[in-house]
Amino acid sequence: MVEKLVIKGGKELSGTLRVDGAKNSAVALIPATILADSDVTIEGLPDISDVHTLYAILEELGGKVHANPDAVTIDPSNLVDMPLPNGNVKKLRASYYLMGAMLGRFKKAVIGLPGGCYLGPRPIDQHIKGFEALGATVTNEQGAIYLRADELKGARIYLDVVSVGATINIMLAAVKAKGQTVIENAAKEPEIIDVATLLSSMGAKIKGAGTDTIRIDGVEQLHGCRHTIIPDRIEAGTFMILAAAAGSGIKVENIIPAHMEAVKAKLVEAGVDIKMDEDSAYIGKSPALKKVDIKTYAYPGFPTDLQQPMTTLLAGATGSSVVTDTIYPSRFKHIDELKRMGGKFKLQSRAAIVTGPTQLIGATVTASDLRAGASLVIAGLAADGVTEIHGVEHIERGYGRIIEKLEGIGADICKVTHVEEVV
Ligand code: EPU
């Protein structure tokens, strides 16, 4: 069976888009519950396939997962340290958080090398450096990472690369280690603060999350708690860009404005009309947009996860914009698809040059990864005619109820399932 999204572009889009809980927090918060000895309830998790895959993994390990629309309760008390070399762990990148969490709880773990979006090489050497510094032996055997430790002891760990995943993974492994761990050159993304907040509510002692030095004093035991996830700043940014590219007045609600500074600044520079409120952004019908140059950086810089949606928007702006991705220099697989829709792009090392304004035209395209998918959905909404997007499973990994949400603002979008034709 093959699924595709079919979008009839050029509709008048207005109304409200509500942002869900942050995917990149959710995929760390769920593994973090492994470290507790009783029920952890998390409110506001997004309804996306990565979250469902993690529930399935916890159930495979003997955890109990009670998921309601508003909150999930995870009982980790009967979890076992079963090896997970294959299967569900291969479906998402964030399964690497099972390494830190299981190492922290059981002092051992076997986790298949993670899957997820292919954005060029995505090494995990900094995660491993951290685990080893805490006293673990880490080996890679036939595509799975084996971690073992007699005891985990706090250590001073300097990250050679600012990494969200390594920062969170080391926190997970260190919260129950003996003594103090200091992570230097830590990433500062809001998702790291969210995970530290959950761990602190479970009884962990963490200081400095959100700065580049995090100090963790190990504790013996972590208990259950209740936690509310932060809103997804990348879904929010995607919606703001979508509103600028194809909207006629759209409110994006459930945002933390401080998380949106870089995106807002670049949209304003391009001429987008934005009014921020306490927890929402209103994007008016955009006048003619101007070119802007974008360079992605670690937070609080412009996020790599919005680079692809932004290139779609800039196809409609006057002039040549240079979009450089310093985090994932080859995250440009959406460009060939946007070219099929009439976009004018040139690829250089690390950068795409987007020349506009171009009125995109509907075409059949394929999403190669999650944010490429988001960029194509925006393109389809802004284009004249019908766009068919294959690779829907990538989009569903990170955007919950996307069809329902877009229909709510007037989009003509549906998912079509058909049997693949054999030629
Ligand atoms: N890096 C290393 N070694 C490591 C880890 C990272 O060289 O051990 C490099 C990466 O190759 C990259 C840079 O460091 O060039 C930053 O990578 P980071 O570790 O921060 O990325 P990640 O933790 O694997 C998370 C998000 C990504 C997002 C990046 C950057 C999750 C599950 N994923 O990935 O989200 O692009 O941070 O902000 O949190 C997405 O949501 O579409 C997505 C890909």
From TrEMBL:
Residue positions, PTM 2-(S-cysteinyl)pyruvic acid O-phosphothioketal: C117
Pathway the protein acts in: Cell wall biogenesis; peptidoglycan biosynthesis
GO CC aspect terms: cytoplasm
Binding site for phosphoenolpyruvate: K23, N24
UniProt keyword list: Cell cycle, Cell division, Cell shape, Cell wall biogenesis/degradation, Cytoplasm, Peptidoglycan synthesis, Pyruvate, Transferase
Domain Enolpyruvate transferase: 8-406
Broad enzyme group: transferase
Transferase is among the record's keywords: yes
Molecular function, one GO term: UDP-N-acetylglucosamine 1-carboxyvinyltransferase activity
Record-annotated active site: C117 (proton donor)
NCBIfam families xrefs: murA, PRK09369.1, PRK12830.1
Annotated family: Belongs to the EPSP synthase family. MurA subfamily.
Protein name (Swiss-Prot/TrEMBL): UDP-N-acetylglucosamine 1-carboxyvinyltransferase
Species, as recorded: Listeria booriae
